[in-house]
Design brief:
Helices cover about 55% and strands about 10% of the residues. It is built from 9 helices and 4 strands.
Length: about 210
């Protein structure tokens, strides 16, 4: 199994966590998103036409998009499960994961921030304000969902790790990095604090990756 990754990509961060939770060994292949933008070059586009990270090679196939990869890992390697048993509960977990991966993260990923800089000409303070605004907007609903659905105050849903937890931790990591105000989100802060101390999550953080500076 081979994961094409970049240490600071929160989408790749999610997949690293899932691989760790499921105790799956993988080779980490760096795809630099800075400088010459390796991910836009023909060699990587031939592998992943979307030109994004992560991409995962497994069983003779190359797959992309982090949530699709989480679903793939859940189906191909079902233990331990990242989704609960009933259809309603699975939809609730997916709702929280998608709120992060589809509503918060896309507005704040590197290519959007770079577009704000050029050609739109936003300065760094305006960009930080944009980043913080969209994180806070998204976390409001997640805080309430987690308050209702967490079974132990340490997980987004029930009392085991799910896809919602795997999406939350990278987003909270970025929120801290950009100095977002997380005081209004005590449930999310408590969950993040607990999960971040677990080996599967701690071993996936950007600063301990092989390609980290």
């Amino acid at each position: 199994m081979k994961l094409y990754t970049y240490f600071r990509s929160s989408a790749a961060f999610r997949v690293r966590i899932a691989l760790n939770v499921k105790k799956l060994a993988y080779e980490s292949v760096r795809v630099d998103l800075r400088g010459e933008s390796q991910h836009t070059k023909p060699a990587y586009r031939a592998l992943n036409p979307q030109g994004l990270v992560p991409a995962l090679e497994d069983q003779g196939a190359t797959l992309s998009q982090s949530l699709a990869l989480l679903e793939y890992l859940e189906e191909a390697y079902p233990e331990p499960p990242l989704l609960p048993r009933t259809a309603v509960e699975r939809a609730q977990v997916r709702s929280m994961a998608l709120a992060i991966a589809c509503d918060i993260h896309p507005l704040n990923n590197l290519r959007v921030l770079n577009y704000l800089r050029s050609p739109l000409g936003a300065d760094e303070e305006a960009i930080k304000g944009w980043y913080r605004h969209w994180i806070a907007t998204g976390l409001v609903g997640l805080e309430e969902q987690a308050r209702r659905m967490s079974g132990d105050g340490r997980h987004m849903f029930g009392s085991t790790v799910t896809m919602a937890d795997i999406c939350l931790v990278p987003q909270m990591y970025n929120a801290v990095r950009f100095k977002c105000d997380l005081e209004p989100f005590p449930t999310l802060r408590a969950i993040n604090s607990f999960l971040s101390a677990q080996a599967a999550f701690a071993n996936a953080v950007p600063e301990v990756q092989p390609d980290a500076p």
